[in-house]
Amino acid sequence: MKRIAVLTSGGDAPGMNAALGSVVRSATQKGMEVFGVEQGYLGLIEDRMQLMEPMRATGMVTSGGTLLGTMRCGEMKTEEGRLKAVETIRKHGIEGLVTIGGDGTFRGAEVLCGYGVPTIGIPGTIDNDLAYTQYTLGFDTTLNTIVRMATQIRDTMASHERVCVMEVMGRHCGDLALYSAAALHAEALILPEMPWDVDSLCQRLERQRANGRRSALVVMAEGAGKATELAPVIMEKTGFDTRASVLGYVQRGGQPSPRDLLMATRMGVRAVELLHQGIGNRVLGQCQEEIVDFDINEALDMPAVFNKELYELVQGLWA
Ligand code: ADP
Predict the structure, then answer these.
(1) What is the largest CA-CA distance in the chain?
(2) What is the separation, in whole angstroms, between the first and last Cα of the chain?
(3) Which of 68, 70, 81 is CA-nearest to residue 115?
(4) What residues bind Mg(2+), as annotated (predicted)?
């Protein structure tokens, strides 16, 4: 294989640039040329790509976001758009494609595999919502950000004896909320994966207050509801001074954590190794600290796994 391309697609995630740099450097070492596709699948459809130069890419590795840009591209879901993407790939003599993104990105890659384009997927999403892997690039950085922000929120909540409902990202997946709540010893946790009701939540907060806990942090996954709607209800039912804090986009940006940088680098190298060996139609993941790869169709069909043990641990920390 002499020429490959790489793209980032879907939501940006810290670590994408490190994966990109790793793909470019390791492919160049193997004598391959790498084209960087701009704005995800849109760049393939509109033929927007450039030859990546490994020597130029120094500062990019530790930066957040994605230097190639990313776009949600509906055209890739149409037959016409897909054919244009394949045409661009053929026109430039591209023999393999590395796609960095989440579930949607891999569905696009799966389609290209169907047209005979070998692809390798690198999981890049802060949500950690890919069932086949224990880890996705960006998750660790975002978890660090949430813990840092929540610690600051807690200072003021404790000073004023308030309750804070802190809403965190994750789309339909509660992992960011679950792992941060466990790390922070949050007083309550609300996830899309588990049933909850406002009365039981209020009773829990009242019980904690009666036991001497003067303030509380309620971690709420965005997939479970809105903090701005829940906070006034808690205030009304309990009389506790309650505030909502929606962390928002601070969770997406920032310098990737060393863990994300390391995994991104390892995954970039592995993606190139596989393509170099003529292996395609795989997605990379992590299992017990090892980088593993799965057939793309099988990986996308795997059912989501919820860490109930960790959920129960959080529930059990406070009476
Ligand atoms: P993520 O990769 O983070 O899950 P999205 O779900 O937005 O993000 O998907 C990213 C892009 O992948 C979409 O904008 C679209 O271009 C492409 N994509 C998603 N689903 C499909 C599909 N079924 N067929 C082809 N392309 C798809």
Answers:
(1) 70
(2) 60
(3) 81
(4) 103
| 75 CA from centroid of ligand 1 (Å) | 10
Tokens 């394949």 sit at which residue? Answer: 86
Judged by DSSP in three states, 277 sits in coil
Pocket around ligand 1 at a 6 A CB cut-off: 9-11, 40-41, 72-73, 76-77, 101-105, 107-108, 111, 125
Q: Nearest CA to 100 among 132, 74, 67?
A: 67
Give the integer Cα–Cα distance in Å for 26 and 5. 13
What whole-number distance in Å separates Cα of residue 208 and Cα of residue 205? 5
Map tokens 């994300």 to a residue: 260
CA–CA gap between residue 113 and residue 282 (Å, rounded): 10
CA distance 312 to 194: 11
**Phi, psi torsion values for 245, nearest 5 degrees:** -135, 110
Query: Which residues, 6 or more positions from 266, have their beta carbon under 8 angstroms from its beta carbon?
Result: 22, 291
Q: Which of 127, 140, 260, 293 is catalytic?
A: 127
Predicted confidence band at 59 (pLDDT cuts at 50, 70, 90)?
confident
* Rounded distance between C-alpha atoms, residue 62 and residue 58, angstroms: 9
Question: pTM for this one?
Answer: 0.96
∠ Cα 140 144 150 (to 5°) = 140
- Distance separating alpha carbons of residues 22 and 130, to the nearest angstrom: 22
DSSP string, 117-163: --EEEEEB-TT---TT-S--BTHHHHHHHHHHHHHHHHHHHHHHT-E
Q: What is the ipTM of this complex?
A: 0.97
Closest ligand 1 atom to residue 41 Cα is: 16
CA 108 to centroid of ligand 1, rounded, Å: 6
Residue 33 CA from chain centroid, whole number: 28
Task: Encode pLDDT of 64-121 as tens digits.
Answer: 999 999 998 999 999 999 999 999 999 999 999 999 999 999 999 999 999 999 999 9
